[in-house]
Amino acid sequence: MKYITSILVAAIVLCACGGNKYDKEAAGIIKMAQKEFEAKHYNRAILLIDSMRTHFPQAIETRKLALELYNNVSLAKAQTNLAHTDSALHMVTLRYETMKTYVDSMKESFNITEEQIRELNTTKAQLDSLKVQFDMECKKIKYIHKRMKTKN
């Protein structure tokens, strides 16, 4: 992926050299966005790309190339979020299952407290929330791949 994005930045710089003054200025911003992407500062890279789009609507060639970088940044960000969500999901699932087993055994002996039930329900809500977040990140990655595929 680094190879592709390096080629992308080189193409932006070459287009900027032959293009209008807007393309040259916009290419500088995209070059900074590329550096942020390589440093895995995805939010900063997206902000720079959005800023370039806002401030240089006339830089048509650079905007076209920036779209490819934007897709790569969005994909990398979604994949990172998915990995973090997956780790959290595994931990909370294990905690919930352990807690559920304990609470069920306490229910049978009538020694359950309201606080234990509340903690189990809170953990279940957290688990459900992580499942939704995981599904959303998967769908986001699928959409980005589809969008990138249609561009080619």
Q: Outline the biggest β-sheet.
A: none
Q: What's the helix-strand series?
A: HHHHH
Which consecutive residue ranges, at least 5 long each, have pLDDT under 50? none
Cα Rg = 23 Å
How far do the termini sit from each other? 16 Å
Q: What would the average pLDDT be, to the nearest integer?
A: 87
Shape: rod-shaped
How many strands? 0
Instruction: Please count the helical segments.
Output: 5
DSSP helix fraction: over 70%
Strand content: under 5%
Tell me the quaternary state.
single chain
Category from helices, strands and their pairing: mainly alpha
Account of the 3D structure:
The chain has helices at 2-18, 21-38, 42-55, 60-108, 114-151. The longest helix is centred in the middle third of the chain and has 49 residues, at 60-108. It contains 5 helices and no strands. By secondary structure, the chain is mainly alpha-helical. Helix 2 (21-38) packs parallel to helix 4.
Main features:
rod-shaped; 152 residues; mainly alpha; single chain; 89% helix; 5 helices
Task: Describe the structure concisely for a colleague.
This protein is an all-alpha fold. The protein has helices at residues 2-18, 21-38, 42-55, 60-108, 114-151. The two termini are 16 Å apart.
Write the layout of secondary structure elements.
Layout: H1 2-18, H2 21-38, H3 42-55, H4 60-108, H5 114-151
